[in-house]
Design brief:
alpha+beta
Length: 296
Amino acid sequence: MYNQIDSNKRKTTLLITIFLVFIIGLGWFLGIYMGYGYEITILAVIISFIMTLVSFYSGDKVALASTGAKAIKKEDNPYVYRMVENLAITAGIPMPKIHIIDSPAMNAFATGRDPEHASIALTTGLINNLENQELEGVIAHEMSHIKNYDIRVMMIVIVLVGSVSILSNMFFRARSFGFSGKKDSNNNGGQIGTIIMIIGVALLVLSPLVAQLIQLAISRKREYLADASGALLTRYPEGLASALEKISQSKISLKTASAATAHLFISNPFKNQSFLTFFSTHPPIEDRIKKLREIM
C-alpha cells in the first residue's frame, strides 16, 4: 500500500511538471519566436487563476446543490454518521459534513477546498446495497481525497488547463484580426525557422487536447492514490474492492450528475452512456479492483 501511494504521488508530480514545461514551451514560442511577448502568457495564467479561485471557494456548494445532496445530522442517520466520524478520527482530519443524495444509483463523492471545509456525499443506493466493510471502504476512499488535498491538486491542474486554452484562443484571435506579432527575421528565416513555425502552430492547435489528456491522467492517478490511501486507512483493501465490484455491476445512472461534476464521483455516474475509456476521468474500475487485491 505504501508503494502504491508513493508511486501515485511521484506520477502526479511528474505529470504536473510535464504540464508546466508544456506551458513554458508555448509561452516561449509565442513570446520569443512569434513575437507576441511574455505578457500574453502572464495574462493567460492570471485570468485562469482568478476564474479557478472563484470556483475553488464556491464550487463545493454548487456541486452539492446540483446533485441534490442534503446535509444530515447524527440523529438523521447514526449508522453513516458514526462510520464517517470514526474514519475521520483514524485519518486525523476534522469531521467532514455529511450529505445524502436520494437516488438508487450507487455512488459517492467528496468536495471542499481543505479538510476544514470538506463534505462527503453518499447516495441512498450506496448505503442500502453495501455491507458495513464495503461502505467503510468507500467512505475511506473519499476521506483520502480530502486528506490528500486532491481538490488543491486539481485546482492547480485546472489553472494550467485554463492557461493553455486562453493562450491558444488569444493566438488564433490575434491571427484572425491580422496581428501576427513582432517577428524577428533572424528567428524566422530559413528552413529551420519554417519547421519550428509549423511545429509551434501544430502544438497550439493541439494544445487544448493535450492539456485535457494530461488533466485526465492526473485525475486518474489521484483515484488510484485515494484507493491505496483508503485501503491503508481501513487496513482492509477487500472492503473497497468488493464495493467497487458492486458499483460497477449497477446499471443505474445518477440523474442529478452532470459533466461538470462527473470527475468528483468514485465511479463514472453515467452508467448507460458510452464514454470512451481513454477520455474518462476515472481509471478502469476492473484495474482499480485488481490493484487493490494485489496489495492484500
